[in-house]
Amino acid sequence: GILLYGPPGTGKTLLARAVAKESEANFIQVKGPSLLSMWVGKSEEGMRKVFERARQVSPCIIFFDEIDALAGKRGAEGGGARVTERVLNQMLAEMDGLEDLNNVLVIGATNRPDMIDPALLRPGRFDKILLVTSPEEKGRTEILKIHVEKMPLAKDVNLEEISKKMEGYTGADIEAVVREAAMIALRENKETKFVRKKHFDGALKKIKPSVTKNLLDTYKKIEDTFLKSAKAAVPMGNSYLG
């Protein structure tokens, strides 16, 4: 299994879908809270059926979005704690139980890796943990090109130059900037035929980056404290912390 963690909007879900497409594998997406049921045993049954389906259609990728909602730390207080504990136990049993998972890859995504039960982080489960953060300058330029593909741009618009100003912007932020630039151009003149540099500058003033230095420091602290200590609690084998 692979655990992707990082700030919202950095493309963790998109990355999992891209892996499925490139590998030509079947793809099952599970949104964390959707498996939880008020009826006793229904949540665990839902988890069991997900893995059963994956075995039937292998090669298959199971993607758990917002996995912290399903696999929170055991022993936590709260009315729903017992349900999530049972779901977590079912997931642990499915991932390395008596019935092998042949040609099935499990990918989890979360914004809060410190809330996940450490038992999931041992080798054989989520033994590869990868931080997904904001794209670098070249990546930002490519994302800009995708979102402006059908947008009429004036000659003064330089995407590389705009990209340099977007440090800390996630893919979702970049999409929002392009959309806002178009809206600014239309508000200025609804008969306009081009989006200009000044419109992008105005959008950058309105849309701020989601990934700040303070946020990266928080994730670094989580990695140094919780994630590494969780790995240290079990034999490392051939796993690594990405």
Explain this structure.
Helix 2 runs parallel beside helix 3, helix 4 packs across helix 6 and helix 6 packs across helix 7. It is elongated, with a radius of gyration of 21 Å. It starts with a strand and ends with a strand. It contains 8 helices and 6 strands. The protein has a 6-stranded parallel β-sheet with strand order 2-3-4-1-5-6, with helices on both faces. The chain is an alpha/beta fold and about 240 residues long. The C terminus is likely disordered.
Feature tags:
242 residues; alpha/beta; 6-stranded parallel sheet; elongated
In short:
The protein is α/β, with parallel strands linked by helices and 242 residues long. It is built from eight helices and six strands; from the N terminus they run βαβαβαββαααααβ. It has a six-stranded parallel beta sheet, sandwiched between helices.
